[in-house]
């Protein structure tokens, strides 16, 4: 691709084609994933909110995903038919992810190369989607690029805040003009408010963002070490950090009582108190081994991605290498802590989503120079061809709607309750029950009556 100075129309063309492709991915390959019980939580919560029912009757997850997830749904709600919210959510989210990538890449290279990078990123995303679908991966790991309520939106927003803060702190010209303070007070307020919304909505994504900041800040070898840690020597930094944690924990404590949000830390400590250190180590090793077997049998597209990362890692940008190296053990520990000792889950692949994103970014960086050697029209034609191929995939919308609207039971398992409420657009509100037949108090708004007491 030899575009020297791509026009605004070139970018408009890319975002138009990529949005169509991403919508088709949501309606075909990823339809089952993004219309599962967990992912339908936010549209149903929003429906109760705007209809005047409120959300006081909801049992919310430890991460309620109010921001930016609920905000995105709220923006789309007046313009998108309710039953299409999950697909438009994924399309809308990916539009801004690609836009963020374009802006970030343009800081380090030309607009021409940033456009080539976008084409390559979208192409690889579709290819891995097709590979995962063809190999029968369960769940399809790249569905989290389009998902709501499973940390992806929070992670993208957290990464955006981190990179923006990092760029401001590295701006030498602006640093000289504000020698008496780290950042102007209006910017401090913006970041405090932004990270607070993230902390209250999704502490997993908040933690990922904070770790990203420390990694990119301290590991930047182009800056003298004294400068890299200068902000951490400031008393104001630590005072603000302590106030931030105290203030937001106080607000979250109020949320937990009024909105029935479970305490993850309490659940974790209660479970660990039953075990001795030897049992913890044994269970951890067994869990990680079983998890790796799940990847081998259910995530073969991840094995392909891992192989490509292994062989091309040294050609990744330094920042990308650093983030992958740091996040691999960190996310593995979070996976273990949450999946094995807090909310028992045999295969919570979503906690490794940041690794998928950074891996795909790195592989795109390695492959996109190939585009410079081919005809400028080829990437456009390839994406159009892929969109045409997706039209031949099954569109399960009508079949799914018919299935769930025909269910008449008043008490159903959790994985059926939300789809029934969603596809009936709230006309049916069955009560979710667990294996013991008792009401299942987990991420549901079905508890409107005394029947659940």
UniProtKB/TrEMBL annotation:
The chain crosses the membrane at residues 12-31, 91-110, 117-136, 148-169, 181-200, 206-225, 237-255, 295-316, 323-343, 349-371, 378-395. This is Glycosyltransferase RgtA/B/C/D-like domain-containing protein. Keywords: Membrane, Transmembrane, Transmembrane helix. It comes from Leptospira mtsangambouensis.
């Amino acid at each position: 691709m030899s575009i020297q100075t791509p026009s605004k129309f070139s970018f408009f063309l890319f975002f138009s084609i990529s949005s169509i492709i991403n919508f088709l991915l949501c309606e075909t390959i990823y339809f089952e994933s993004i219309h599962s019980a967990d992912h339908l939580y936010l549209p149903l919560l929003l429906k109760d909110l705007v209809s005047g029912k409120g959300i006081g009757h909801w049992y919310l997850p430890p991460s309620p995903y109010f921001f930016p997830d609920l905000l995105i749904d709220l923006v789309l709600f007046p313009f998108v038919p309710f039953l299409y919210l999950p697909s438009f959510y994924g399309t809308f989210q990916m539009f801004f992810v690609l836009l963020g990538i374009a802006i970030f890449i343009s800081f380090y290279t030309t607009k021409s190369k940033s456009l080539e990078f976008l084409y390559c990123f979208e192409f690889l995303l579709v290819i891995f989607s097709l590979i995962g679908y063809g190999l029968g991966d369960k769940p399809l790991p790249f569905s989290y690029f389009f998902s709501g309520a499973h940390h992806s939106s929070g992670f993208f927003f957290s990464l955006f805040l981190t990179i923006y803060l990092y760029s401001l702190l590295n701006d030498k010209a602006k640093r000289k003009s504000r020698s008496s303070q780290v950042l102007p007070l209006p910017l401090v307020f913006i970041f405090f408010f932004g990270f607070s919304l993230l902390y209250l909505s999704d502490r997993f994504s908040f933690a990922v963002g904070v770790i990203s900041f420390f990694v990119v800040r301290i590991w930047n070898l182009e800056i003298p070490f004294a400068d890299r840690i200068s902000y951490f020597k400031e008393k104001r930094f630590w005072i603000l950090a302590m106030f931030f944690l105290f203030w937001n924990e106080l607000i979250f404590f109020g949320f937990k009582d009024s909105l029935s949000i479970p305490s993850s830390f309490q659940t974790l400590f209660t479970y660990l108190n039953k075990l001795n250190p030897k049992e913890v180590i044994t269970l951890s090793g067994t869990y990680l081994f079983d998890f790796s077997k799940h990847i081998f049998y259910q995530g073969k597209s991840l094995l392909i991605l891992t192989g490509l990362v292994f062989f091309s890692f040294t050609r990744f940008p330094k920042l990308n290498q650093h983030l992958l190296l740091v996040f691999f053990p960190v996310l593995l520990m979070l996976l273990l802590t949450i999946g094995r000792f807090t909310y028992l889950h045999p295969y919570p692949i979503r906690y490794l989503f940041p690794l998928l994103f950074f891996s795909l970014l790195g592989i795109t960086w390695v492959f996109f120079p190939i585009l410079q050697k081919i005809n400028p029209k080829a990437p456009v034609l390839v994406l159009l061809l892929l969109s045409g191929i997706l039209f031949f995939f099954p569109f399960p919308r009508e079949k799914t709607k018919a299935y769930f609207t025909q269910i008449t039971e008043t008490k159903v398992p959790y994985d059926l309750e939300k789809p029934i409420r969603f596809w009936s657009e709230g006309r049916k509100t069955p009560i979710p029950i667990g294996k013991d037949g008792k009401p299942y108090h987990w991420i549901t708004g079905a508890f409107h009556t005394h029947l659940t007491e």
